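Dear Dr. H.,

I hope your travels went smoothly. While you were away I took the liberty of generating a structure for the chain from your last submission, since the lab meeting agenda had it listed for discussion. I wanted you to have the full record in hand beforehand rather than looking at slides cold. The sequence, exactly as received, is reproduced here:
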Amino acid sequence: MHPLDNPIWHSLATAHAGFAQICNSARKFPREVSVLGGFTEPTPESYDSLASLLEPEKTVNLFLQAPPDPPTAWSILSTGTLLQMLCDPSSSRGANPEGCRSDRVHSEQPEFIRLTNSDVPEMLALTTLTIPGPFGARTRELGDYFGIRSGGRLAAMAGERLRLPGYTEISAVCTHPDYLGRGYASALIEMLIERICSRGELPFLHVRSKNARAIQLYERLGFGKRVSFHYAVLRHQT
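The corresponding predicted structure, in token form, is as follows:
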């Protein structure tokens, strides 16, 4: 299995092993860092191991290769399909001639600000409003996150989340509704692509399969569709 076929588990087993809460084949992030978890195979034993890592009444988010089919002690709160996209300069799948960097020219290059712990309240407010995916009070510890401010207000942000050898995920791409149409998301993604590629790594990301507008944007920026997952938000009944 390719590491990107099980990215949460491989991230927790490699670059983010220092965050990993572990029981047998199951691993998860501390909840304030991320609600993501994973295991090597979706067996009853793996689900039992994952359950032992959860606090009572708390949920966990999984990326699965098949629709979720957990043991009866689990409740499926939400599920759907998630598309993984990869920017690979050695592939013809959507990459532009310059590799994994977009050749889009911005009429006005915004200033990118590295976001710090003092920015977390605004980051949480923006992700709560725009819902780009789960984002916690300590998610920014997983990688570098950058924002664009307008009039002192956090108008857009994006950053790095899952990491495994040779790959870094771009995540939390979001723009406040008052600032849509200014190219902020594209500019942030292009900057992150350049940073990741400069380290000799490949950028990847995840997007809901029904989000056609975002998928088209990512394809214009050099990403190609790689694989589909079934995401699942689960709760274990104790």
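Two observations you may find useful: Residues 84-226 form a domain with the Aminopeptidase fold (CATH 3.40.630.30). The first helix runs from residue 7 to 13.

With kind regards,
E. W.
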